[in-house]
């Protein structure tokens, strides 16, 4: 793949998934991303997740480190020491982007806020990923995507059946979308700097991301003064029977998503072997008025065959549909394989899958390397900066690296 960010250096002072995922995207695109970690412990997520109960090779892979940290280099710095801060500033002076999720009080305490970094590199792009945004009463509070996006922005409320406990979000679901969003903001800021010579401050928050993802629901709720969760159509009342889930004989599900029902209804009826339905329910109005009857017919239709049979039957159809797949299945989806959306990565004697970011350049997927160990490239990076072995030994003795 064309490395569109080749020559760009990103200094990442961040942990967990949301902001590091942005670094992974930039690294996929060719940037040299240097992840700064705490000596000894590294990113706290390194010790949080274990797959040991799984057995086999999976027990040795921390996927929540590997996915948002692939293609990077890792340097350990103790920012609480003078030598560590000096080293960070030396790196910042030679970087194009400073990427962090540290909250403002911590940034100010360690002298790594915007003004501190701009003092050594006035044109650097300074990027802040936060939970709630740079302003407001909660700007100083940290959070995670399941709280700041899934819960606070309203996602859980609209997908949870009435009376049930809120549906739990998939792991890192919104963090990874947020990382992609940050990467887009950084790319725009780099273009702005190229044109003007000025480095921008880029802010992306989980709450802002959640509201963007939920914008249709939020706008409609405010416009129609709907103070409770926006109601879902009960399955038997959906206005378009071609936009619904249907269960197959083997207990699997299909999602039909044919918004222009008049366009797709004739083809659908012929494809499933019910051409008489074209005249029986000739237009969207007729299907709406008789929607309970039509949905019941489609329930009976799809329940007569297994999912594998329906894949074959519906395959040639123009209208949109999809099987409801498991995470295990989607990695082997022929479309995912053809586009290299999942890749196998080798780390020592282990092989495991990682997912590529969805942006490709010139028709090729990015090449993926496994995440580094904490501090794996410390000496390499210091030598590149002009430090000699005596300097490195001194920094180590003083606890700076």
UniProtKB/TrEMBL annotation:
Pfam families registered for this protein in UniProt: CoA_transf_3 (PF02515)
Domain of life of the organism in this record? Answer: Bacteria
Q: Does the keyword DNA damage apply?
A: no
Q: Which UniProt keywords apply?
A: Transferase
SUPFAM superfamilies in the record: CoA-transferase family III (CaiB/BaiF) (SSF89796)
Recorded hits in InterPro entries, A to Z, give: CoA-transferase_III (IPR050509), CoA-Trfase_fam_III (IPR003673), CoA-Trfase_III_dom3_sf (IPR044855), CoA-Trfase_III_dom_1_sf (IPR023606)
The entry lists its GO molecular-function terms as: transferase activity
Q: PANTHER family, per this entry? A: E-CINNAMOYL-COA:R-PHENYLLACTATE COA TRANSFERASE LARGE SUBUNIT, SUCCINYL-COA--D-CITRAMALATE COA-TRANSFERASE
Name the record gives this protein: Crotonobetainyl-CoA:carnitine CoA-transferase CaiB
Give the source species: Cryptosporangium aurantiacum
């Amino acid at each position: 793949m064309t490395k569109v960010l080749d020559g760009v250096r990103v200094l990442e002072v961040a942990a967990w998934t949301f902001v590091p995922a942005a670094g992974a995207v930039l690294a996929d695109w060719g940037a040299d991303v240097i992840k700064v970690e705490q000596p000894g412990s590294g990113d706290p997520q390194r010790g949080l997740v274990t797959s040991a109960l799984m057995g086999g090779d999976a027990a040795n892979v921390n996927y929540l480190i590997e996915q948002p940290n692939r293609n990077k280099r890792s340097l350990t710095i103790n920012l609480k020491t003078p030598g560590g801060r000096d080293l960070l500033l030396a790196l910042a002076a030679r970087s194009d982007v400073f990427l962090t999720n540290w909250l403002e009080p911590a940034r100010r305490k360690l002298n790594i806020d915007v003004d501190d970094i701009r003092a050594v590199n006035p044109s650097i792009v300074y990027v802040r990923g936060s939970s709630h945004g740079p302003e407001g009463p909660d700007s100083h509070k940290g959070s995670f995507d399941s709280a700041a996006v899934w819960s606070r922005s309203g996602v859980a409320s609209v997908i949870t059946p009435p009376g049930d406990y809120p549906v739990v979000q998939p792991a890192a679901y919104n963090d990874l979308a947020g990382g992609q969003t940050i990467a887009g903001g950084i790319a725009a800021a780099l273009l702005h700097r190229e044109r003007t010579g000025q480095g921008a401050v880029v802010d992306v928050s989980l709450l802002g991301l959640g509201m963007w993802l939920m914008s249709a629901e939020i706008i409609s709720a405010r416009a129609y003064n709907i103070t409770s969760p926006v109601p879902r159509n009960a399955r038997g009342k959906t206005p378009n029977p071609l936009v619904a889930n249907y269960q197959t004989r083997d207990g699997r599900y299909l999602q039909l998503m044919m918004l222009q029902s008049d366009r797709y209804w004739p083809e659908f009826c012929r494809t499933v072997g019910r051409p008489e339905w074209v005249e029986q329910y000739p237009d969207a109005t007729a299907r709406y008025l008789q929607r309970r009857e039509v949905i019941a017919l489609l329930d009976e239709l799809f329940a007569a065959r297994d999912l594998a049979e329906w894949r074959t039957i519906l395959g040639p159809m123009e209208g949109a549909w999809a099987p409801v797949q498991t995470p295990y299945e989607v990695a082997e989806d022929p479309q995912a394989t053809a586009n290299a959306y999942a890749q196998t990565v080798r780390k020592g004697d282990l092989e495991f899958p990682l997912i590529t970011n969805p942006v490709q350049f010139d028709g090729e997927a990015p090449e993926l390397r496994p995440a580094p160990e904490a501090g794996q490239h410390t000496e390499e990076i210091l030598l590149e900066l002009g430090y000699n072995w005596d300097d490195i030994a001194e920094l180590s003795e003083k606890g700076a690296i």
